[in-house]
Amino acid sequence: MKTDYIIVGCGLAGIAFCEQLKANNKTFVVFDDNSQQSSTVAGGLYNPVVLKRFTPVWKSKEQLELALPVYSKIEADLKATFDYKSKVFRLFNNLEEQNNWFTASDNINLTDYLSLDIIKNTNTYIKAPHGYGEVLQTGRIDTKALVSAYKDNLKQNNLLITDAFEYDKLESLNDKISYKKLEAKHIVFAEGFGLKQNPFFNYLPLNGTKGELLTIKAPNLKLSEVVKSSVFIIPLGNDLYRVGSTYNREDKSNTPTLEAKAELLEKLHTFLNGEYEIVKQSAGIRPTTSDRRPFVGEHAVYKNYFVLNGLGTRGVMIAPYVAKALYNLIENDRELDNEISIHRFRKYKYNVNNN
């Protein structure tokens, strides 16, 4: 079988690259064995502001302009809803944070995203005596539903292979590659934290940060907006809310832990009143990087091997942006932004013989 591209990984990065290929009438096949879970356990928020420090997210304007039409098109193609427009309220813990909010709103890169109105809290189940600041142009992608529906669609079209990818079966043949019975022009590795096992790109300093979330049922809470304090509370509908997230750089398992549960509940109780039931706890390893920028680019030796990884905690926003950048590198010979190009890690040693 011949195809233009082999894509390894069907999380947010892989899906965004599939959409680029579809838009340009390129053929492809996707490998995904469900070993990576970061996209399916993500909070899914798209939010252009770092709410801990009131600073702009890197290239937030460009990312949002690209991302939202991509998700809208996927919704139309799959006849499903994944993008839920949600207000995001940043809870102010004191007057100093209010003042810092207004100071930040003068930043030219934040004026479109920070409301100047202080919103009074009227919900008796939330402790917020200093009110909230509202972040504009925000929402939530249901990443679990998106990934599941996208894989189902690929499978229906015979474009998804659920076997684990065997790197030692990959061969480079001048201007093409072969993998078992497949022949392709290019291969893109978008396997998230699975990159650590990839002999072609495992020299890249992918850290991996474990994140854990709780899903709670709180019938009396009646929140319609996302509230951010020491943790997020994200409304999911039907009185369900997602609470998260933790950041653990040591544990690299997908197993939920009692320690993370205790940490989330302790933080939640600083601003939540009232009863609730814990419905579920989820965990996954985010593909985080040392400099908080993605890994995008071409292998130093195998010129038709590419990587699309390291999306970190903001994969929903950044995936379509980096997918387009990689496509333009491969097909249009456009240089990558130095901040995302893997050339910034030339000093790292890699094994070109894959041993």
Q: Layout of helices and strands, plus pairs?
A:
Blueprint: E1 2-8, H1 12-23, E2 28-31, E3 45-46, E4 49-50, E5 55-56, H2 60-78, E6 83-84, E7 88-91, H3 95-104, E8 114-119, E9 132-135, E10 139-141, H4 143-156, E11 160-161, E12 170-173, E13 176-179, E14 182-189, E15 209-217, E16 226-228, E17 232-237, E18 240-244, H5 258-268, E19 277-286, E20 295-298, E21 305-309, H6 315-332
Parallel strand pairs: 1-2, 1-14, 2-11, 7-16, 14-21
Antiparallel strand pairs: 3-10, 4-5, 6-10, 7-9, 8-9, 12-13, 13-14, 15-18, 15-19, 16-17, 17-18, 20-21
Could you give a quick summary of the protein structure above?
This protein is of the alpha+beta class. The protein has helices at residues 12-23, 60-78, 95-104, 143-156, 258-268, 315-332; strands spanning 2-8, 28-31, 45-46, 49-50, 55-56, 83-84, 88-91, 114-119, 132-135, 139-141, 160-161, 170-173, 176-179, 182-189, 209-217, 226-228, 232-237, 240-244, 277-286, 295-298, 305-309.
**In which range does the helix fraction lie?**
10-25%
User: CATH topology of the domain at 2-41 and 144-207 and 290-345, which one?
Assistant: FAD/NAD(P)-binding domain
Average pLDDT metric: 93
- Tell me the CATH superfamily of the domain at 2-41 and 144-207 and 290-345: FAD/NAD(P)-binding domain
Strand content: 25-35%
Main beta sheet, described? 8 strands, mixed
Find the structural class using helix and strand composition: alpha+beta
**Which H/E pattern describes the elements?**
EHEEEEHEEHEEEHEEEEEEEEHEEEH
What ranges have pLDDT less than 50 throughout 5 or more consecutive residues? 350-355
- Helical segment tally? 6
Distance between the termini: 28 Å
* CA-based shape: globular
